[in-house]
């Protein structure tokens, strides 16, 4: 099975207009201890609902491949997964804000020749939109529109959030926005992608 990364040209065909990027006007994202998330610091992304997997990691699409890698959820609830760093679209930000365009980057080594920066990908055989890795940090604009994600407040808990794709780094681009949830594949792997059921998460300082 061949998988393709979304190109900027493909994303431009999507139908819902992306909202403008904002930063300081929005509240800061808080970790489980009530502290604001800081750019370029390491955090674990953990599920709010227990018993349905652990923290986030990187996995191949299936057992017959080693690369490329995708964003996945650990099957074991007790695992924190891999640490990540967040990079704001505004490099002067000293906190991570809700509803702000961000790069998500795993702080880990792999054998795959690709970056650890999240990017939206598409499986052209199924049409399913997954979160892969291989994007770039910064350089906001049409060429990197698939690399930007946002953290939004969700759930009933004070420190509960969800991750969404709704890039605002290109004012004239038309973007298909979506909540990020976990797909359980046939072999039990929990890969992240567009889902009608968002994965509610919390952030833990690594």
Automatic annotation (TrEMBL):
Which Gene3D superfamilies does this UniProt record tie to the protein?
2.80.10.50
Enumerate the GO terms in the molecular function aspect.
Answer: endopeptidase inhibitor activity
Q: Which domain of life is it from?
A: Eukaryota
SMART domains cross-referenced by the UniProt entry: STI
Where does the signal sequence lie?
1-24
Keyword Oxidoreductase included in the entry's annotation? no
Mind listing the UniProt keywords for this protein, alphabetically? Answer: Disulfide bond, Signal
| Keyword Cell inner membrane belongs to the record | no
Taken from the record, one Pfam family name reads Kunitz_legume
State the protein's name: Kunitz trypsin inhibitor 5
Question: What is the primary gene name for this protein?
Answer: LOC110782823
């Amino acid at each position: 099975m061949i998988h393709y990364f979304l190109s900027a040209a493909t994303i431009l065909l999507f139908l819902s207009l992306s909202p403008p990027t904002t930063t300081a006007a929005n509240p800061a994202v808080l970790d489980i201890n009530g502290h604001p998330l800081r750019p370029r610091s390491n955090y674990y992304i953990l599920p709010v609902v227990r018993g349905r997997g652990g923290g986030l990691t990187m996995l191949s699409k299936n057992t017959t491949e080693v690369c490329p890698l995708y964003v996945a959820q650990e099957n074991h609830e007790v695992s924190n997964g891999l640490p990540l760093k967040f990079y704001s679209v505004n490099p002067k930000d000293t906190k991570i804000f809700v509803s702000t365009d961000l790069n998500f980057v795993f702080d880990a080594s792999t054998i795959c020749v690709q970056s650890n920066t999240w990017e939206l990908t598409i499986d052209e055989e199924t049409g399913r939109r997954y979160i892969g890795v291989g994007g770039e940090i910064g350089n906001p604009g049409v060429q990197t529109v698939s690399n930007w994600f946002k953290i939004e407040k969700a759930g009933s808990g004070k420190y509960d959030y969800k991750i969404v794709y709704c890039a605002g780094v290109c004012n004239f681009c038309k973007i298909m926005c979506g909540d990020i949830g976990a797909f359980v594949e046939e072999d039990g792997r929990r890969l992240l992608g567009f889902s009608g059921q968002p994965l509610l998460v919390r952030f833990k300082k690594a």
